[in-house]
Every structure is written in structure tokens, then in C-alpha cells.
Design brief:
By secondary structure, this protein is an alpha+beta fold. It has four domains: 73 residues; 120 residues, D-Maltodextrin-Binding Protein, domain 2 (3-Layer(aba) Sandwich); 124 residues, Alpha-Beta Complex (Dipeptide-binding Protein, domain 1); 221 residues, Dipeptide-binding Protein, domain 3 (Roll), CATH 3.10.105. It is 30% helix and 22% strand. It has 14 helices and 23 strands. It has a seven-stranded mixed sheet. A five-stranded mixed sheet has the order 19-18-20-14-21. It has a four-stranded antiparallel sheet with strand order 5-6-8-7, covered by helices on one side. β5 and β6 form a beta hairpin. It starts with a helix and ends with a strand.
Length: 593
């Protein structure tokens, strides 16, 4: 307990401290009054001196800031860096990510991101190893040996081995699996002598075979218990596909209450165990759209980074500083196929006249982008292309002479007539702005020589039905040729028959010399020898004029903002744009030079 004496002592100390503080405060007020307020009036006299010093200080501060920023640009630089979410809009719908069934644009996009194959195409469209470390062919040209890379894993962490490769191709070869790849794998024997080696033995030499090894592989441990007849509809394909590609499945979200409004949003995350290193993008999102308008609106609203599926750059969106339109040639050909079994197109003179009547150079130059002309069943980049054996040159006078010689004479309205029948046929094409222009150009060209052409453009589903049934007189269509010059599927007589699996011989072209040349060329591995074998085919194709070759189609890829490492020179299909997607970057960061 504190006694009275202690309390009095504390009270005296408190009063003393209080008086001391008051004294200090009075002294401070006196000093401020004497040294500051009384001297403020003198500032007016030295105002110029004060202002000069203040301006000097401001100038020095500005110089320091400017110098620092200048040095930053000298020693620092903005460079691409990892991270970020990339969203791509694609026209179409998502149905199946399994590489054994992925055919349409959206499905192939998702499949390409999730799954890897033995081989793939690089930015120059050259075949290189993907999961394969090496591949070779023996002296017979029939046995191919593929060696896998080390330490390959699936997205779920399980090891990927030759057993998975064997399982994938055995599924393709099984008729109950109903894979679109079935036809190209008939008769091929597949073996896995060890966990890193796969051997393919062909029934006959096929020079283009390595290009068949680019399809994605599927995991045996997840699909071995699925009945083969039910594989096409397995949950694996749409709810949780597991591959070995650069991105892993995350989720799918469906929006829209009507078929027209329906959109899918497929989210993928980067695969940190990808053999080529973790992708630079953190996530890759694919959004689907049913038509151009919805895709374009989403892009304009900045909901997506890029667009795939448009045939031309919209007039309202001219490429500028923040928008880049990549126009990448596809190794295919846009051609007009004349169905030779059509009553008025079975005369070779008529077909030659139709080829002669079109100024293909003017057509290609007026497309609005730098298209690559096609003047042969081969592309100019193909081994075997011969510039001396290309289609007939434009010659209006010769076109008129050929039609006159064939007995088609001009009537009163300018349309040619023979035995009471008009020289008329229907040109079928898919409904898009580019083909609308091309068909109108062709129609005017043929009308100038007295040929009546009716144009019918169809939406994709109806167009594919017409193509499948060969229900046309002439067909404007784009075909995929790939990096190898094996065009057997499009021009061999067996491929135009009703019993053919795909009927890709749209002209229903038949020529003994062409058939023999096509068979001989595809069985020669040496490029020089292949070129020699193909020459009779090129000669027959030129003279028989089963089609009018126009130009290579393109991949139009429109991107907002920066997209680093997208340097694609040519692709075989639109999904091949993703060949180096693991190196894509969209962000920047300051780094020392």
C-alpha cells in the first residue's frame, strides 16, 4: 500500500515536470516568432533568389527522372514471359476429343492440345519427332522402326510406353471401333518388341507412310476395359480425356438455351510434365460459336484473344496496331471438279474449254490476300511438281473454238445449244463470302463463252451431303493434300466408284495411264524416281481436264494483342497452327539487356 509521503513526492515531481514542459513550449513559441514569423516579411526582398533556387531544384529533379528513364531503356527491355490465360474462339461445336475420332475443327483443336503423336510438323511444315526420338525405314521400304523418347508420361502420371502405341493402332484397325483412320491402316502390322520401340510393317511400299504417324495416341490403362463397340461414345472422349500433350483437361461448360445460341467453353491447364517443357501459357481456353456474328461480337467485346474459322477479315475490323491477321497457306487446293459422268461435262473438249475460259491469275490476284496459285494436281511445294506439265493456259479464243468443235453453237440469247439442249450445269459450293466471290467470277467467265452456270451455295451440313452423294454437275471445293504428293485418293479411278469408302475422286476421273502412274509414284521412296513415275499422270490430267485448279486455301488467324512465337509458314490443316503452342506467350516483363 502506498503511504502519504510517497504520494506527495510523486505529486511534486508531476508539478515540476509540467512547469518544465510549459517553459519549453513558451521558449519554442518565442523562437518561432523571432526566427520565422518576424522574417517572413523579408522574403519579398529576396523573392527572386528564392524562386531561382526553387526552379533549380525542380530542374535538377526533372533531369534525374529523365536520365533514370533513359537509362532504363538502355539497360532494360520488355521481353515475352510465361503466364497468362489465352482464349481462342472457334466456329463449330465440340463433340469428341479422342484423336481416333476427332475430325471437325473444334474437335481437332482440342485433340491437338491434349494428345501427342509419334511425329508432328514444325513451323516450316517439316515432319519431325514428337513422342518419337527417331524413326527409320529398312531397305525394303516396308518396315518402319520408331524409338520413343525417354521418360514419357500421361497427364495422370502413368508412364507412356510402346504398349500404348500398339494399343492405339490396334484400336484404329479394329472395324468395331469405327475410326475414320481405319482405311489408311488396313494391312499394316504393328509390333512392340520392347517398351520403347514400335515396328510398323506395310503390305506394300508407301512413301507417304510417315505422315500417317501424326495422329494422337490414347492411354491403354484407361481404355483397355472399354468395349470397342462403345469406344466412340465413351466418357473419356468428352468428360475427362487424358493425353500426353502440352495441355491437360480441366472442365467443359455449356451455355445457351437454343441450338443457335449454344456455346461450349473448354478449359485446359498446362501440363508441367510435357516432354518439351511446361508450356509458357498457364491456361488455354477454347470457346465455340455457331456462326460468324457471335464469334466476331465476342472478339470485339475482348472476351477472346483470337478467332479461327472466318474466311475473310471483317470490314469493320481492319488490322491495326493491336490486331494482327495471320494468313497462313494450307497445303491443299481449291478446285472446280467437273463430274465427268454428267451428261454435258463428259466431253473432254467442253472441260478443256471451261479451263481455258477462266483467267485464274486474275482470280487469284483479286482474292484480297496473297494467295498461292495452284495449276496442277500437285502443289508447287511438292516433290514431283513439273511447271511444264500444268493445266491448260487461259485462251478465250481457243475455248470458243473447242466448244464450236464439240457441236455447241451459240443461240439467240448467247447460250450454246446442241441437239436442242442448252450447255448448262450447276456449280455447288459452300456458303461463305470467299466462295461467293469465286463462284460469281467463274460464272461470268463461263457465260462469256456461252456456258450457262447456275450457282447453289449450301451450309456446311447440306454441302457435305451433296459432296458425299456426288450430287452436282461441278463442285467448288477445297481438298487437303498435305506435305506429301500422294494424291491417289483424289484421282485414282477406284476412288470415284460408288463402293469406295470416301469417294474423294470428286470428278469421277478414270484413266489407265493416270492410275498406273499414281500407283507407281506412291511406291517409290526416292523423290527423284517418284517424280519420274508421276509424269504420265500429270500429262493425262492436263489433257483430260477433270478439274480447274485455282489456289491454295488459307488459315485466317486473327489475334488481339501480342502473340509471341507464332511463326507458322504453312500448315496441312487448321489444327496444325498449334504445332508449337507450348512456346506461345502473351505477356511481357522488364529484364536486363
Amino acid at each position: 500500500m502506498i503511504n502519504r509521503t510517497t504520494r506527495l513526492l510523486w505529486r511534486r515531481r508531476y508539478k515540476h515536470s509540467r512547469r518544465h514542459v510549459e517553459d519549453i513550449g513558451e521558449q519554442a513559441e518565442e523562437q518561432i516568432e523571432r526566427h520565422f514569423f518576424r522574417r517572413l516579411g523579408r522574403l519579398y526582398v529576396v523573392r527572386r533568389f528564392v524562386v531561382s533556387w526553387m526552379l533549380l531544384l525542380v530542374l535538377l529533379a526533372g533531369v534525374v527522372v529523365a536520365q533514370t528513364r533513359a537509362l532504363n531503356t538502355y539497360y532494360l527491355d520488355f521481353r515475352p514471359t510465361s503466364g497468362g490465360i489465352y482464349t481462342e474462339g472457334v466456329i463449330g461445336s465440340f463433340t469428341n476429343a479422342n484423336p481416333l475420332y476427332a475430325v471437325a475443327g473444334v474437335d481437332k483443336t482440342i485433340s491437338h492440345l491434349i494428345f501427342s503423336g509419334l511425329l508432328k510438323y514444325n513451323e516450316q511444315n517439316v515432319l519431325v519427332g514428337d513422342l518419337a526420338k527417331s524413326w527409320s525405314v529398312d531397305e525394303s521400304g516396308r518396315k518402319y522402326t520408331v524409338v520413343l523418347r525417354d521418360q514419357l508420361v500421361w497427364h495422370d502420371g502413368k508412364h507412356l510406353t510402346a504398349e500404348d502405341v500398339l494399343f492405339t493402332y490396334q484400336l484404329i484397325q479394329h472395324p468395331d471401333a469405327k475410326s475414320p483412320l481405319f482405311i489408311s491402316w488396313r494391312g499394316v502390322k504393328v509390333e512392340a518388341p520392347d517398351l520403347k520401340t514400335v515396328v510398323f510393317t506395310l503390305p506394300n511400299v508407301l512413301a507417304s507412310f510417315p505422315h500417317s504417324l501424326t495422329n494422337g495416341l490414347v492411354p491403354k490403362h484407361l481404355l483397355k476395359d472399354v468395349p470397342i463397340s462403345q469406344l466412340r461414345s465413351a466418357n473419356f472422349n468428352t468428360s475427362n480425356p487424358v493425353g500426353s500433350g502440352p495441355f491437360k483437361w480441366e472442365e467443359v461448360e455449356v451455355r445457351g438455351t437454343t441450338p443457335e445460341e449454344r456455346e461450349e467453353r473448354i478449359a485446359l491447364s498446362r501440363n508441367d510434365k510435357y516432354y518439351a517443357g511446361a508450356p509458357k501459357l498457364q491456361r488455354f481456353i477454347v470457346r465455340t460459336f455457331r456462326d460468324d456474328q457471335r464469334l466476331l461480337k465476342s472478339f470485339e467485346d475482348k472476351a477472346i484473344n483470337a478467332m479461327v474459322g472466318l474466311s475473310s477479315v471483317p470490314d469493320s475490323m481492319e488490322p491495326g496496331a493491336n490486331i494482327t491477321a495471320y494468313s497462313v497457306p494450307i497445303t491443299g487446293a481449291v478446285m472446280v471438279f467437273f463430274r465427268i459422268s454428267h451428261e454435258q461435262l463428259n466431253d473432254v473438249r467442253v472441260r478443256q474449254a471451261l479451263v481455258r475460259a477462266v483467267d485464274t491469275v486474275a482470280l487469284v490476284n483479286s482474292l484480297g490476300y496473297p494467295a498461292i496459285a495452284v495449276d496442277s494436281p500437285f502443289l508447287r511445294s511438292h516433290d514431283g511438281y513439273d511447271r511444264k506439265l500444268v493445266q491448260l493456259e487461259t485462251n478465250i479464243e481457243e475455248a470458243n473454238r473447242l466448244l464450236d468443235e464439240a457441236g455447241w453453237l451459240r443461240g439467240g440469247n448467247g447460250v450454246r445449244v446442241k441437239d436442242g439442249q442448252l450447255l448448262s450445269f450447276t456449280l455447288q459450293a459452300q456458303n461463305n463470302s470467299e466462295f461467293t466471290y469465286v463462284t460469281q467470277f467463274l460464272q461470268k467467265s463461263w457465260q462469256a463463252v456461252g456456258v450457262q452456270v447456275k450457282i447453289e451455295q449450301q451450309e456446311e451440313a447440306d454441302f457435305q451431303t451433296i459432296v458425299r452423294d456426288h450430287n452436282y454437275g461441278a463442285l467448288l471445293n477445297g481438298i487437303g493434300l498435305g506435305a506429301d504428293p500422294d494424291v491417289y485418293a483424289y484421282w485414282h479411278s477406284s476412288q470415284g466408284a460408288v463402293q469406295a469408302a470416301d469417294r474423294l475422286n470428286f470428278s469421277e476421273y478414270s484413266s489407265v495411264s493416270a492410275d498406273q502412274a499414281l500407283e507407281g509414284g506412291r511406291t517409290r521412296i526416292d523423290p527423284g524416281l517418284r517424280a519420274v513415275k508421276y509424269q504420265p499422270f500429270l500429262e493425262a490430267w492436263r489433257n483430260d481436264a477433270p478439274a480447274l485448279a485455282l489456289y491454295q486455301p488459307r488459315l485466317l488467324y486473327i489475334v488481339r494483342g501480342n502473340l509471341y512465337n507464332f511463326d507458322v509458314k504453312m500448315v496441312n490443316s487448321t489444327s496444325d497452327r498449334l504445332g508449337n503452342v507450348h512456346n506461345w506467350m502473351i505477356r511481357q516483363a522488364q529484364v536486363n539487356k
